[in-house]
Amino acid sequence: MPLRWPGAAWLLGLLGLLVPAPGWELRLAGGRGAGPGDLLLDLSLEPQWHCALDPARTARQLSEAVEVTRGGLVRRTAKRLSCASFARNPLPLHLRLESPRDGGLLSLRLVASLHGPGCPSVALERTPSRLVIFSVSHLPALLCPRGSPPSDGRRVISALAALTSFPQCQCPDGLPLACRAGREGCPQPPGENPLELLCYLRRTRGDLLVELGSVRKEVAGEERQEKLRVERSRDGPFGAESEAGWESSRHQNTRRLRSVNSPPQFKLPNYQVSIAENQPPGTRVITLEAYDPDDGEAGRLTYSMEAFFDKRSDDYFSIDPEKGVVVTSRSLDRETKDTHVLQVTAVDHGSPRPRSAITFLTVTVSDTNDHGPVFEQPEYRENIRENLEVGYEVLTIRATDEDAPDNANLFYRFLKPGVGEGVFEIDPHSGVVRTCAPVDREEISEYHLVVEANDQGKDPGPRSATVTVHIMVEDENDNSPQFSEKRYLVQIPEDTTINSQVLQVQASDRDRGSNAQVHYSIVSGNLKGQFYIHSFSGSIDLINPLDYETIREYNLRIKAQDGGRPPQINSSGMVSIQVLDVNDNAPIFVSTPFQATVLENVPLGYSVLHIQAVDADSGDNARLEYKLELFHPSAPVPPSWDAGFPFQINNSTGWIIVSAELDRETVESYHFGVEARDHGVPVMSSSASVSITVLDVNDNSPMFTEKVYQLRLNEDAAVGSSVLTLTAVDRDVNSVVTYQITSGNTRNRFAITSQSAGGLITLSLPLDYKQERQYVLTVTASDGTLFDTVQVFINVTDANTHRPVFQSSHYTVSVSEDKPIGTSIVTISATDEDTGENSRITYVLEDNIPQFCIDPDTGTITTLMELDYEDQAAYTLAITAHDNGIPQKSDTTYVEILILDANDNAPRFLRDRYQGAVFEDVPLSTSVLQVSATDRDSGQNGRLLYTFQGGDDGDGDFYIEATSGVIRTLRKLDRENVAVYSLRAFAVDRGIPPLKASVDIQVTVLDINDNPPVFERDEFDIFVKENSPVGSVVTRISAIDPDEGTNAQIMYQIVEGNIPEVFQLDLLNGDLTALMDLDYESQTEYVIVVQATSAPLVSRATVHIRLLDQNDNAPVLQDFQILFNNYVTNKSNSFPSGVIGKIPAHDPDVSDKLNYTFVKGNELNMLLLDSSTGELKLSRDLDNNRPLEAIMEVSVSGQGELITALLHGITIV
Predict the structure, then answer these.
(1) Exposed/middle/buried for 353, CB within 10 Å: 0-12, 13-18, 19+?
(2) For the whole model, what pTM was predicted?
(3) Does position 1072 have pLDDT exceeding 60, yes or no?
(4) Cα torsion for 727, 732, 738, 740, to the nearest 10°?
(5) Is the dihedral of CA 81, 84, 86, 91 positive or negative?
(6) Which residues contact 275 (CB under 8 A, 6 or more apart)?
(7) What SS3 state is found at 642?
(8) pLDDT in tens, 287-310
């Protein structure tokens, strides 16, 4: 049945609680036991009591097998117990019950025995269960309260009564605890020795050793902590050494003698304390007190202290030589050194020589928030391209904080984002800056962001730091040039000087750099190549003379192209150049001289002759006015003309009419001049002579000699040249025949002159084969009254009058660099308005550019060599088209070939191999190193992403930022698991298909002291021959620390079981030395617990030192006698025939084998002796009634030892 205690509940099950005689015992099943969480023990008291396992004093295997709740419930964990790992049974289990409200503290030592297959046999536990109560003082008042007990011990008394038979307990003097006059509780032990009581467990046969100590308060820095310590007497009646002698002290009342000068002893082999950094010098750390049971000078102790590992620790701490108070000598800095290991020595002043004790103090410096975040760079600068996708990772802002993690939990945010607000965002935990909106350089080209890192510390408060992030937006060629005007209009006189500027067009590009460099070209409308545009300035110059009379307006289309790759083009620029007429052409008479005949009987107003002149100008410059010149210099006017000239001329039409009656008999002919004057400024004029003959009336018409005239005339015939002479014959006497073109003279290309030999047709204006290819002129021959007509067919033949003209003065085409040789890029063509060979065009590549050729007949440009965008991104070819006429004419255009980038270049890392190092305890996302690669391609083909995909990321321990190439830690590192990582990263471009390059990266993990030393086994069995020389090395106990360097330095100590001090363990190499004689016959086995320390980490192992017996003791045999009374009866079988006893000899050496023999006195063989066992039998010869006394000498021999003794044998009848 489970037992019910006040304040404590006990459960019994497969892993239950047994209460044997020695005290409480936990019974644990080895192998497959009950499931995790099964209740083993219920030690719950009042709610103010908190329970916890003491791992420093409990075997590791046991501490992993059980868990203790704050409320006092002891449960089974999931850890499987393997009895094969235990060398002894039972094991101690130490618990602490604490009442923080009033400082009460109970230390409970339980016994846990293991049961199951393969478990060691349960040895007799000689030491009772122990309950150490750290009370608060006033022991008499605590044990025997008058009224209510002291407030600081009231709760302790309640707990003690709940767990034990208190106050029915026994004092160290053997008397029961009593509260009466003259005896208040138990006698107070001397000095500060604890008081020990022997109580009984409630409702059970077991007993419990209760030890009451005192409470000490110690101050560490600004934090006040209670450090509870108990002063234990090693030689007290129920102390550690007296536990085994408890029964003898109760029953035999024996005492152990004390040496002349006992060594001092610290309560613990090592102490650990924590103190906050930055405390002022003189801050108390801990008080270390050793106990020396001696009196006087032999018990007076002096303390000293020195650094054990790092000599720097000597500068930080000092110890009071008399009181053992350790204080700081200077302010501590956790970030400089967070752990100090000090060796403290207590030396007494006894004689004949002082004795000493050593303990070790490990001071852990706790963190305060005395460091602010520090960014990896004083400022960050990053260039990004505009038009990036939303969510693009721009860069990672990282700060570090030397404080502990609680004070170094960094939080990132933007301060006053300004223009960056809404465009960028920062991850508050990782510091990754991303785009959250499109980035347009033309809107904002630079962002200056302020990032704050806050460590969120609490002691004394958070600290922060700021850094400026400069993000420069690189230009993408995403804007085409824009002309300043939709249409440019300019008017220029036709006599403008050659090479003078006509106007300047201007286009602006919102991009910058080469993307904003604008190049201009004329696409179309540049008839006859009159104009030239400067590629960079946009200035349009006149390079050939203008002729208003030929072309009056030019409409040029201008292309603006930037220097980006690929370029942006705007061909919408329109320029209208209007040619203004100047009076540069004098009137030209269609014939000179003008001759006509008129009958003398014509009426007034008769039209005699049409004077006709033409002016190539326009407007007023071409509006003509005619007048007669009566005084022609070559033929002075006779005086008779003064009375009145018979002819007038119409000022506008040029018709000469009869203004007065004619009289041939008076004047037979008239000779005068005609002036044609234009209205230009300045006025230009021409003169022609006119001859009018007055005829008689006749009756015969002139007759042409040919019915029709046909001829060919080349279109390039010169103006004024003779075309044809026509002849008409008039049969009348003295008739004068005049010739006129009366129809078919399109555009007044021809003129006819009446001559004596006939009518001469001349070319008055240039011919144009394109406009008219044939003229049918009707020519009239008149004698003044009668006339005749004839048709003249003039066929115009083509001349090489036109040059080839390209459709555009500038072509732009694109071709990918990966096109094969022989690829046709573009076909350009020119037109020639001539015909035949004059219009057959041949194309020629002017410059020797080996990458291209042009087909001379078709104008197709093809590649001759492989193209490489990275070597040259554009080519400008000058192409000339010439005809095959005579003389040969030509036109030139320019073809700009833009090479489009193909993804033909793989990325290339700047280094062949990268190396970096990082401490294994760095926080996640710590920057290790940065890799960088370049790609000769452009655009998406040259934009790189970094990745571990397909490579090696250290099994996921690292990640790489895709855009920056920074490699960071993704998981916690462990140098002892992986000391060196061999990573492989890739740089991948964004081309189609993508190309990539790899690089090997070696990351060395630097060690920190994060691993405790590890013994080869948890328990060691050491076999040592007894009588080994004092000071000899028994064995070497070593541990392995997976760390390296100073982090792997190990200090060895004996922490349990070495009382009295039988062995010594070398601090550095682990050599175990015997300090006294080892005697198998006194003690066959020693059990010590050794500890390996790599400050502040420790591990323990149990060492069983088993002595091997040596034959170092002679057999023991004293004189003895045998009394034999023989009563003779009639019964013959009453005489004893069996073994009556054995020789009382023994050998302390268990390994020795004894041989027994009679030396003398048994010549009659009265006694029969077994030589191997020493058993004795009586000879049948003694079965009589005669008294007999014999003295015999018996010898017993071992291995080389021989002893004898006398045997007195007496027979009584």
Answers:
(1) exposed
(2) 0.50
(3) yes
(4) -70
(5) positive
(6) 220, 221, 283, 285, 328, 332, 363, 364, 365, 366
(7) helix
(8) 999 988 888 888 899 999 998 878
